[in-house]
Amino acid sequence: MLFQSMFQDEEQAVICTEPATSHVPYRVRLCTRQRSHRDHLEAAGHECILKDAFDFESPSEIANFIKAESLEAALALHLYRGGRLLRGHGIPFGVIFGGTDLNEDVNQGEKNKVMGKVLEEARFAVAFTESMKETAQTQWPHARGKIFVQSQGISTAPNAAFNWNSFLQRSDMKKHRGNEIALRMGPVEGTSENLLLACFYVQLHTLGNDEVLEINQSADHLHVFLLICGLRRVKDPLYLVDAFSEWHQEEPNVYMVIVGPEVDPVFTREVEAKVKRSPGVRLVGEMAQEDLHAVVKNSFAVVNSSVSEGMSAAILEAMDLEVPVLARNIPGNAAVVTHEVTGLLFSDPQEFVQLAKRLVSDPALEKEVVANGRDYVRMYHSWQAERDTYGHLVRMLEGSPED
């Protein structure tokens, strides 16, 4: 089966795989999706081939690739970015909504029309929440009956050997790039077919300049607020920078560390320039998945300042790692963060600082949201439940639509 996943922050491209050394908040929220989908498909006995979606400049190139690899089916992450590439090629496919497709692309006439056509051909579509499902059904009524809800399954594995103090002091951080990989899988249970899965992903580039962290504080007295995202405008990583920098000048033991790969080169230069002149704010490129989880585990809190989200894996992973979450109050975040229960929601930079100060000074609140967040993730974001769902959906790509 051909499985294409485009993640928009998910939101940029395709997943279904885990580049050998990368997991970034984008690829983290990226890589997490990539890896989980790949693992679920492997468990079902499929083969997965990953390609950079931007390698294809025309429909004929995609058609030639499908023919050359004898691909039989596909899974696209992101209705527009991924799904549109699969139309008209005669292979069955499913799609997974990303976030920007339903929050932003849907408001652009031509993209809306294209996505409607994609859903006409898709055998199924997956939404992370009931709200996302309702939005899709309202926009494309003809898709009713083929949209399923499955929240992201979360699994974390921090690197036990990770040295937090060294991380805080280092000034030359290694950069990694994802590698294209192909995975072979055997026959699907209950069938005689060997289904070939091909996944496309977008190669995310690391930051071009040397990264300097050099947080010269005792780790015991630090409060690091970690913002994980691909550097693109919809993630709005600069939203809190001025307010946080002012707070840092009042309280030098608080830092904001932005972790993420370059997605938009022009915007990345803007972020780099802003961070350089902002006391208390640091910028780090993509990291190995296990190392990133270790950084999350050692941070005081994880922050999300996105303008648009489907379902933030960074938030869910922080909850799983028992780290407090402060998230911008947007629908995608509010769907997983209940204010003062599983985390804190803010509506502007000033409210963020107010809530962050409260969290620092109120250990009881910190303990409560951490415990509730952990319980929420383990109850509603089961890795096994996600695997079972995708195992079922993959079987819908076998045979003809009438079967």
Descriptive notes:
This protein has 403 residues and is an alpha/beta fold. 37% of the residues lie in helices and 15% in strands. The chain has 14 helices and 15 strands. It has helices at 25-43, 59-68, 100-103, 109-121, 130-139, 164-169, 241-250, 265-276, 289-298, 313-320, 331-334, 349-361, 363-380, 383-395; strands spanning 7-8, 11-13, 47-51, 73-77, 93-96, 124-127, 147-149, 182-183, 196-200, 223-228, 254-259, 281-284, 301-304, 325-328, 344-346. Strands 7-6-5-4-9-3-8 form a seven-stranded mixed β-sheet, with helices on both faces. Strands 12-11-10-13-14-15 form a six-stranded parallel β-sheet, sandwiched between helices. Helix 1 (25-43) packs across helix 14 (383-395) and helix 10 (313-320) packs across helix 13. The protein is globular, with a radius of gyration of 21 Å. Residues 220-374 form the Glycosyl transferase family domain.
